[in-house]
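General statements about sequence and structure are easier to judge against a single worked case. In the encoding step, the backbone of a single protein was reduced to a row of integers, each denoting a local shape. The record that follows shows the chain in one-letter code together with its fold in token form.
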Amino acid sequence: MIDHKDLKCLVEIIDEGSFEAAARKLNVTPGAVSQRIRRLEAQVRKPLLVRRQPPYLTESGEKLMSYARRIWQLHNEMDRNVLNEPNPVETISVAINHDSLGDWFLSALHAFTNATGIYVELTSTDSEQTDELFQKGQVLAAVTSSPNTIPGCKSKLLGPLSYQAVCTKAFAARYFEDGINATSLRQAPALYYDRRDRVTQGVLKHFGVRKGETPHHYIPGTAELLQATRMGLGWSTVPSGYLRMFGQGETWVQLYSGKIQTELHWKTWDLASDEIEALSRHVFQTAKDYGLL
């Protein structure tokens, strides 16, 4: 039987980035960490880590990691609820897409931490990457644009995250004097969050324009993207809720009146701890409050 302490060792190596850092976190020697990993690898009869700096998981390691985090979470829950043993400060790893983090998710996090005293380690990336992190077992829950599930997990629709394609009045006067069309969009600088920004690409596609046909900047941050738009660096697609909260003081020109939405899903593992279930309740309540559901 696999020792849960060995699984915890594997988790800490990945989270801390080295055998030495994991040893410090676990208050053991680096030699003890190496011994535990060798024992795990002997039990599964496959290498679990590529021993580089930083170490990373093999395919077998990724499969084991998806169980390791859940097992350790349930172990902490058992200690607290059955043995009445205090746990160290708990954190739950969650993958969140950039726009949800900038728009509505922090309200769910605030409510959850106030109610439970449990903290969250967020990994912010695009909606497709969050799904990949979840499938690799690097997080216990994720907000993702993919409804697909893998064995042992469940996915539930959160609802559509809405966006607005906007620019300033001065920018519109400069580039869209003759209207918003394929010709003017090919001249007007666009602001992308990053190279995976399919929302902005979708607006261009509606007008028959490809990404490579327009001048553009990459601005990796929701707040920074809005600030760049306010400064007139280009037009952008901004989450509607974020624009309402932080876009005040500017008269925005909407480039596109149609719906710009991304369907979001909340993924957790079937064997979820009480903490994950509590987080799920706050996530769905906040999604409802923000009009996603």
